[in-house]
Design a protein that fits this description.
Blueprint (H helix, E strand, L loop, with lengths): L5 H13 L21 E5 L2 E4 L4 E4 L14 H11 L10 H13 L5 E5 L2 H16 L3 E5 L12 E3 L7 E3 L6 H4 L2 E4 L4 H10 L4 E6 L15 H12 L2 E5 L11 H6 L5 E4 L10 E5 L1 H4 L18 H16 L2 H24 L3 E6 L2 E6 L7 H5 L3 H13 L2 E2 L8 E2 L6 H18 L1
Parallel strand pairs: 3-15, 5-8, 5-9, 9-10, 10-11
Antiparallel strand pairs: 1-2, 2-3, 4-12, 6-7, 11-12, 13-14, 14-16
Helix pairs in contact: 2-10, 3-10, 6-7, 11-14, 13-14
Bound molecules: pyridoxal-5'-phosphate.
Amino acid sequence: MNTNIEKSKALFSAAKEVIPGGVNSPVRAFKAVGGDPLFIKSAKGAYIYDADDNRYIELINSWGPMIIGHANPIISDAVKQAVEGSLSFGAPTEAEVHIARKIVSMVPSIEKVRMVNSGTEATMSAIRVARGYTGRDKIIKFEGCYHGHGDSFLIAAGSGMATMGVPNSPGVTAGTAKDTLTAAYNDLEAVEKLVAQNKGEIAALIIEPVPGNMGCILPKEGYLEGLREICTKEGIVLIFDEVMTGFRLAPGGAQELYGVTPDMTTLGKIIGGGMPVGAYGGKKEIMDHVSPDGPVYQAGTLSGNPIAMASGRAMLDYLSTHPEVYETIGATCERLDLGIRAVLDKMGLKYYSTRLGSMYSLFFGEHEVVDFETAKQCDTALFGKYFQAMLKRGVYFPPSQFESLFLSTALTDQDVDHIVTATEESLKEIL
Ligand SMILES: *Cc1c(COP(=O)(O)O)cnc(C)c1O
């Protein structure tokens, strides 16, 4: 039992004095599940160690990037070697050519690609390019889909304001919000309606093809194809935000898996192998609008950073030459899902679980979860208790009902069996 977290508690107190909420990204603060966040000292393979030397089985993997396990020498060695040649130049390098060619070869929609430093930068830049390309201002996004913290994306639809975006963060101006239209995920008609009401004004439709930021949610049959059709017909740039799903669901992401090719794609997380990297790319015709070829400005002092490129390059080289990775983690994820379901069925607990490849969500509730509304109806209080009980048993779930699990190849069947046993013990304790 991991019950001594004194050092984490002390660090959290100290952090709160000098860092807002004690963390550099909100979900890390455990607000959604209660309790104090763990401060992490190190990680190796499928295990992560906190400041008090407790060991946990990792189910977050830095929100995706550590798909081949922590401190994997394939990545670490490439980084160590790159460090010797200086940390940054602010000038082009061979590694950037290599990684760009690799991305183009892996991701169906990408003919040209620009590297940035985060997923947020990738999505912000992609919609700027889509706006520059189409000469239109508005974008459509989906409730519960997360695209980083750019102003245009921090918008929720207020009830009764179906066509007018309302910011859900102070600091986002009404001017910005009015250009973001929102629709429910998995509802094609809602998109058709928005498009009809804003004819000729919509530059881009941006979507997580398989959302992972309201828990893992699966697209209904024909949904992504339907969006593709609408965008083609209306001259709207279809952007798949594959920051999470890219290189995770398949070497070419969700677009490869579903056979639906967007006009642009945004990438992040796995693409840097753990270093801060993002990218956006798409059709040549669109990407040729980016500076210095075209008029749409976008730049970065540390973009294409040699250490980040070495890390990302090692990751993509590995994934593109080891297709069995996807089968292996898919099988691990299935074992986890079936194991947990057997426990919950035996206990007669109502739940809904979603799984695709190595993404997995367990929702406590009776209903099918198909969008943000149905995700919000789940028992988040029970999830919080489950999270805490699992943590004590050495299993580190994402600290929110609305986050997907991201498995790594380092997770063994024994680890999975431990998670299943811990689930049974945890639920017996809290119910
Ligand atoms: C994580 C995420 C982002 C933001 O990426 P950052 O690197 O955190 O800025 C954008 N879109 C999706 C789908 C994400 O999961």
